Amino acid sequence: MIWGFALILLSIFAIPSLLLCEKPNANELLEHIEPHQGWIGLLFCVWGVWGVTSSVLNIDLFSTFPLWWITLLIGNIIEVVLGFLLAFGLINKYFSTEMESEKRALLRKKRAPKLGRLGIVGLFVGVWMTAASYLFL
Question: According to a count of CB atoms within 10 Å of the terminal CB, is the N or C end of the chain lower?
Fold first, then answer.
């Protein structure tokens, strides 16, 4: 159940990128929320890696609850990817000193719609993970 709630929360942080990318001053707005999204994304990316590792280590659940195990694995993979995409701007900012601000803004503009769409998918998968935890466990 906690995995589903975590994915729902992460998706809620990702969806504003989809809404903001359509505005004329999208670069300024995305630049303003990027640090917050970055730290939250980094935290959830690590949490998702732990979830994928936990899923693989508990592969014996596949024989008793195959749908739950597959749901857990897919949800955590989405959490890792979504967390990394949210943290990408922050990682770029701290580890890439030579990248111009124009190129960083272009990457942010390209990434925002994909991030928002994946956030919507993550929201549905998170709701399913929460419902599946009540149904199967």
Answer: C
26, part of any domain: no
pLDDT band at residue 97 under the 50/70/90 scheme: low
The DSSP secondary structure of 37-72, one letter per residue, reads HHHHHHHHHHHHHHHHHHHHHTTTHHHH-HHHHHHH
The answer to whether 85 touches 115, Cβ cutoff 8 Å, is yes
For residue 123, is it within any domain? yes
Full-model pTM:
0.85
Domain count, the chain: 1
Residue 65 domain boundaries? 2-21+34-136
Joined tokens for residue 92: 């770029």
**CB neighbours of 45 closer than 8 A, spacing ≥ 6?**
79, 80, 83, 84, 86, 87
